[in-house]
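User: Quick one: structure for sequence A, then sequence B.

Assistant: Sequence A:
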Amino acid sequence: MTSSSSVQQAREALGKRLREIRKDSGLTARELAARAGWHESKCSRIENGRTGPSDHDLRVWALLCGAEDRTADLIATARNIDGAYVEWRRMERSGLRRAQESVIPLWERTRKFRAYSSWLVPGPLQTRAYIESLLRSIRDRRALPDDLAAAVQVRVDKQRILYEGPHRFAVLLEESALRHRIGGAATMAGQLGHLLSVATLPNVSLGVIPLSADRTALWPVEDFWIFDDAQVNVELISAFLTITQPHEISMYARTFLGLADLAVYGAPARALITAAIESLG
């Protein structure tokens, strides 16, 4: 499945709904396009999920098909699809600070966080030096406006949810995430030491999946966050994916449980972190 397949599936599902509305009205696709003043292929592109309809398209569609009572729901569905797959360049066009700030309301209202990472220590558990190294790399690689100091401070300030309110965190890391050097040996040693510290918090469960784990049934997957049972976020190379379909959230929740069964906790997890520190020399 491609990274944006769930978005495409949602567009196709909306297209099927629109096709049913058109057929119920007795109109052919060609007749609807003619009455709307569209190119005759536009209805087909929309119904097959190849073209996303605008708000105006949906209003016209519902009006001509005698289904004006469905207009608001159709528009809300389309907007949710459009917001699910957001390219980084769109989110970060004014710099990194705004992208960091955009998720604060979600983090503040979430009570149960589940996070899986195969390549980085997740944001709430990061040190300032680790954050700065990560965001500097993103800034330089994507040629973004330089608001690094402000973006770092937003992420550091956001970590207050670790210590305030009824927030619980279940974090799973592949052992490889402990070995990927971010910011040099000193920064990485500080980060791993901090990880040992935050793992002792009563509201944090930290599991590490050893490199020696048998991955026959479940191999490493894309990094993801589950916020309560309401939303999943996945960070892709090109975009930020938001998943709100209940059946897809359930798939990620089941995957998290499977990964959790592969992880070690407590003293064995601390031993893997300590070994990663020692490997820094």
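Sequence B:
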Amino acid sequence: MADNVLTVNIVTPDGLVYDHHATLVVVKTTTGDMGLMANHEPVVAPLMIGEVRVRRVDNPGHEDMIAVNGGFMEMSDNTCSIVADSAERARDIDLTRAEAARKRAERRIEEAKAKRDQDELQRAQVALQRAINRINVRQGRFGK
């Protein structure tokens, strides 16, 4: 393997979602976006709901997009391992389902506000963030 290559693995409770060699991976951590290349110092970071962008070795002009809903990332020995609550590759996202989830979450937010139910409001806001993340990843919109 070349010196400028790292392995990117994304795993969820349902199993392996992504496994490729890359020159660059960008993740959304709780402190901001983090770009990782081969030979990066070891690091562990918690992830936000957001996209993971991977520049693959076999297709350098293209970035794979993966919608990730929380979890953490560990970089060590030229392997970037992401353990996520859930993750979905852009090509696998059903846009119609994601839009329906966004609308359901927006309705739930309005209902929770009307009832002044803070717990339900918080859950609905997270559901909305996840739906918007999936929509943005499917449509190729970064960091929206």
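The radius of gyration is 16 Å. Strands lie at 6-12, 15-29, 32-36, 43-56, 63-76, 79-84, 87-89.

User: Thanks, that's what I needed.
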